[in-house]
Amino acid sequence: MDTDSSPDEQLTPGARRILEVASELFYWRGIHAVGVDTIAAESGVTKRTLYDRFGSKDALVTAYLHARDRRWRKLVLTTLDDAGPDPVARLLSPFDVLTDWLTPNSRGCSFVNAFAELTEPDHPGQQLVVAEKVWLRDLFRQLLQDTGITDADTLAAQLLSLHEGAIISYSIAGETTAANTARAAAEALITSAGPPPLARGTAPPSGPSR
């Protein structure tokens, strides 16, 4: 999904207000628990205005997930760019953003929460959820392949599991240090699996002896 442009950027101020209110309600109360009457009332608009702007509740749910997906990807990619050329730092970028992301999102992952509610496989919202998780796994895989690690598929799956597990540990089990714990485990996995350049503290080759 393009992180530089998004349909929500084209919304009118009124439609943006509806989306902001709906996003808060969907995240904190649940998608099925919140009806369009509640969204309209808390947005200060009529139901007709809501439908005029979004067409349906399903479309509003999809817009909510799309906006969160876009913000998440932009945050990860910005952190990745800031990491510079260090391969380990780049691989740990999705973990580095977790603490700041989780602090205001204590109900866990909005995508996982939505996946539990949107049971229809052809629902565009569910498709966005799947695409977000696949994107992160594929990002790990690509970064691993860039380092020369041979079994990038397996390690990418392990890193994704650590990442998603940290979110669950934080939001459900109350593990406030879950992001840092997962990051440390991810770093250990990466440095133990990679070639010498990934081993922190390993001196670079000095060249052939003469």
UniProtKB/TrEMBL annotation:
One Pfam family hit: TetR_N
InterPro entries named in the record: Homeodomain-like_sf, HTH-type_TetR-like_transc_reg, HTH_TetR, Tet_transcr_reg_TetR-rel_C_sf
Superkingdom field: Bacteria
Entry annotated with the keyword Cell membrane: no
Domain HTH tetR-type intervals: 12-72
Ranges annotated as DNA-binding: 35-54
Keywords: DNA-binding
Ranges for region Disordered: 191-210
A GO MF label: transcription cis-regulatory region binding
Keyword Repeat attributed: no
Name of this chain's protein: TetR family transcriptional regulator
Organism whose genome encodes this protein: Haloactinospora alba
